[in-house]
Design goal:
heterodimer; A: alpha+beta; Beta-Lactamase; Alpha-Beta Plaits; TIM Barrel; 10-stranded mixed sheet; 22 helices; disordered N terminus; B: alpha+beta; 2 domains; 8-stranded antiparallel sheet; 6-stranded mixed sheet; 8 helices
Chain lengths: 613, 373
Amino acid sequence: MANKGVSQTLQIVSIQHELSMSIGLSIDLVPMLTTFMKRLRQRLSLNSAMIAYQFGDTLTSPAYSALSVPSTLVEENNNVLSDLITSYYQSNNNDVCHKNIKGLDYYLFLIPDHGVLVLERAHREIDLKILQAIRPLLNKLAISIHACSQHEELKLEVENRKRVEQKLILQSLQDPLTGIANRNQFNIKLADHLESSLASGVYGAVYIIDLDRFKVINDSLGHSFGDDLLKVITKRLQQQSDKFEVLARISGDEFAVISPQLDRDKYKAKTKAEAIAAKLNSAFSEALCFNGQCIKITLSIGIQLFPLDNNPQYNSAHQNSIVNNADLAMYAVKRTSRDSYQFYNESMHAKNERRVKLENALYSAIQDNEFEVYYQPIVNGSALINAAEALLRWNSKSLGPVSPAEFIPVAEESGRIVDIGNWVLEQVCRNISDIDAQNRPNTLNYISVNISPRQFGALNFEHDFISILNKYSVPYDKLRIEITEGVALENISSAVSRMNRLVNRGVVFMLDDFGSGYSSLSYIHQLPLKTVKIDRSFTANIANNPNNQVIVNAIIDICVHFNLECVVEGVEHENEKNYLMTKGVNKFQGYFFYRPNSAAVLMELLEQQHAGH
Amino acid sequence: MQGVFGDPIYIETLSEATFSSALAEIPNTKFESILLIAVDQDTPFPKELESLLSNSEFPIWGGVFPGIILAAQVKKSGALVIPIVVKTHIDIIENISQFPHSGKQLSFDNHDTKSALILTDGLTDSIEDTLEIVIKSLPSNTVVFGGGAGSLSFEKKPCLFTPKGTYQDAMLIVTMTQPWELVISHGWEILDGPFLANEVSGNEVIQLNFQPAIDIYSSVVEDHSKKSLQDTSFFDIAQTYPFGIDRLDNELLVRDPIKVENNHLVCVGDIPENTMLYILKGEPSSLIKATKDAATSRYANHSINNGFLFTCISRELFLKDRFQDELLGIAKPMNNNNPLIGVLALGEIASSVNGCVDFHNKTAVMAMPTVVN
């Protein structure tokens, strides 16, 4: 094909112009070079073109495929071409290098500071004038490569920053232990669902789920085990994910679930929500087995439907109320049955308000001298007082007299029980000293004090207890510690260790309310007990109640077997006392003998008893 | 020359029954696959053909074209069944108009590839970009040849097939360990130029020498043809005056302007921006001579047993009755008992002697298997 009408000069200029204009058409390195090399191949009728690109101080493998067309160019020429490219680059020679390898012509051009451009042509060599016309393009190519590199570095930096930002966002919305939503994300999702619920008029439900007695597992098996268990629990909850849309871990052992779009009809929505809660509870009916251990977990679930009645608009107060209500419902379950669910109701709110008031009032109760220690005598078969149980009474200035049944759990939950308990110990020690001083010879063998689980588990309990007794020079066996089955069961091994250390110093332990709780015979022999107190619930009308008789007789037999002293609480009638005496019991406590009364009254009674003898 | 094809069998009307009969005619010599080339207007699509492909016990691949060539004769109906006796590896790239090109690397199974026969949907976009990716993925020095399939009605429909089914907007790549040699020729000559294509968009020429391309083109063509582009169908005149893209070694890559849209000249195949364009002219005798001379001179000292021709449909439209002369000229170096076969294509694909693979227009590409000593 003739092209005679065109002078070679014009051809050279046109090649230079076309190739020059094809440099820098993209700001991304690979597309920019790809376009340039495609033009090179077409314009110069090349077999292939390649760029060996410099990364850092070294040249890339010349087979760097993204910049080579065909990508196998160097591979097929083994090391000959590769070595040629490397030595040419190192020579830093601006002249074009031309070599014929295996019948193919190779032309190497230096791209200043960036690498080497390699052209491969078959059949016919490229005219020297055209090669010289290409040389000036290499500087432009180098500038463009530099610009692209800087752009890519910037892009990389931006991408990295975005990645970090995404990670931070994710971290702020995700629970790192379980990978599910955290409280933040839960709140965001609830806001969305509440808004759509308000718009659609379809009720949804929020569930606050607390793991029952998880603290015991954490304390006894370690936090690492606890963490693993939380992951397993999460998985089991996720298996129920067809019933809800959001599952979040909102605190240590507390989860939250949202089931939106239940029903337009509130009653039906409630029924559906109830069914979901039941499913969640029953999902844990089987123990969780992992790491060679099987753990039985139960859930206390509080439920609140949303939107709330009389709250037609979305606002944060509306949302907070939903969560708070579900939380209150959960606590209501916790304080009663556990392993169950409950919907929020208005009375919970009232109870909570009362609870908050109690908690606030408890903070100043010691300082304001609102507590008083009462004593209920423990008598023998001849009705002689030889011990007493200390009982705390609270006459609040703001709330009036408050029953221990009401304020002790609040003090226990709020942690105030430790200070209150220590105050009681001080009072009892002071009273023991007073009684000792006035009642000679002293017939009062001991005074027992109830120690709550939280106080008993406190880090400084042993130290505080001994210090207080020492302060008032009270012999260690004069102030007995009454614990409940719950105290022992919270963490049996550490409870036993602590009890043994105190017993070794002469302290005496009594087990209170025996029979009312777990009554596990497996632990009773592990505890260093002196006395067991049979719960008052078995005493009522025992003379005529065969069921109670069976239980009480069994407990008495256990006490005999383990050589334990037996005290029966709640004796209110003579026939009860008489029946129990026939069974060999000779320590009683109850209204039939004495009601709880002040220290002064106790001292008076002891005086009278002394005078009577 | 070494044999690659068994004897081709012509079917006047393609159907499952006629295809089965054709297969029965093939002698019991060993063959690897069946190349089926069919004329678009008579090809039953798509269900009948797919059933034929899936029911065959041999792998069938091929395409439909505006015409087929058998024994240096053009057939505008029917199909050719060609047994392929060398090993072939068949790949298909689908949706090439949406193909993500940048940095994409294809992977072909055959590392000993010496040649690649490429059939592409000739009526889709991004043929050249996809071709670039394919070339990048093939071993260096692979001889590449082929052409565009489809209908002269320019209706987009399935035009390629493999044993897996029928395809449109696709590229079929058949790699072989058999080396091939090519003769590329067109015979178009420079009428005027060069012109700087300072503004183009893909396959549209917008400006030449910083003036509207249509103005420059009309002026040159009208001056030479003594016909007005206003008065005559653009295609009727333009088929005689294609563009030529300047290449080294006095070569020109032909681009066929087929229509005018928004005053832009729309071509078959991309025009690089800032390239030098010529306006070409052609005479039937010079075109015929060019292809005949190219075939004869390249194979003056050889006898050719097999040859497959990809020639542009526009050559047949331009040469009309004399197209037969061109085919006879190309077939001349061949042994008389091995008839020339081929297709009338919508664009031709071929790697030049220098190694560069191009998408051609208005060009004849003769592919012949190389003798392996």
